[in-house]
C-alpha cells in the first residue's frame, strides 16, 4: 500500500545510551505506525536504518512537530519515565516561530482545551464553569517567554504545564500570536480548509483525526489522481493511485521540542535553523 511521503530529513540520533535513545525527530514523520503510515515512521526508520528495535517512546510529538524525542530501550526504563511524567516531575520546553512582536514579559495561558477528533483540531475555552455553562475541554496551562523578535516574527520559548492535543498551538492562538505557518490556527475560519484544503494537517483530517491518536486499521483510503506516479509491477495499487490527503506542498510546523528535564536527568536537542531571525 502507498504511504504518504515524508520529508527527506534524517532521523538524527543524539545520544545512544544503554537504556535510552534520544533523537532529533524531523517534521512530517509520525513517531509510530498510525493511519496510513507504516514504514514512514520514526520507529520504522530507526529499525530499518539503525537496527534498533524494540523501542518504547516515553512521550509523543505530533507528526508535524520536530525536535527532541526520548525513547526507552526496554519496558523497565520506559516505566520509570512514565512514573516521572505521571508524578508531574518532568518539565518540557519547545520553541515556536510566531506572528508579530510577542510581549516581552512572560505570558501564562490558562484555558481548557477541547479536541474535536472529527475536525482534527482543538479549541480553547476561557471562563469558569457555572450552572448555565459547562466547559467541555480539559484543563490546560502553558507559559510563554519571548526569546527574540525582528518586528515581523518572534521566537518564543513554550513551557507546557499540561499535555493536551495541540495545546501549544491553541494557546499561542489565544495570545494573538499563532505559529506563523500553522494554517490550522492562523484564523478561526479554517474548518473547511483543514478538511478539504491544502493545509499541513490535511492528511490527519482525512484520516479521521491526529495521526498520533487514530491508530486503528484503515481500509483502503486512496483516490485516483491525474498526476503520474512510478509504477511498481509488484504493487496491486499501481498505477495512478496516490495516498489520500497528501497534496505535495506540505511543510513542517515552526514548533520544535528542545528540552526535557526530570529527576536527575536532562535531554536536549539543537535549535532548528528557522529559530534564527538574523
From TrEMBL:
Family classification: Belongs to the pseudouridine synthase RluA family.
Source species of the chain: Gossypium darwinii
Catalytic activity: a uridine in RNA = a pseudouridine in RNA
Domain Pseudouridine synthase RsuA/RluA-like: 19-173
Pfam family membership, one: PseudoU_synth_2
Taxonomic superkingdom: Eukaryota
Name of the protein this chain belongs to: RNA pseudouridine synthase 7
PANTHER family per UniProt: MITOCHONDRIAL RNA PSEUDOURIDINE SYNTHASE (PTHR21600), PSEUDOURIDYLATE SYNTHASE RPUSD2 (PTHR21600:SF40)
GO biological process: enzyme-directed rRNA pseudouridine synthesis
Signal peptide residues on this chain, from the entry's feature table: none
One GO molecular-function entry: pseudouridine synthase activity
Keywords, comma-separated and alphabetical: Isomerase, RNA-binding
Transmembrane segments annotated in the record for this chain: none
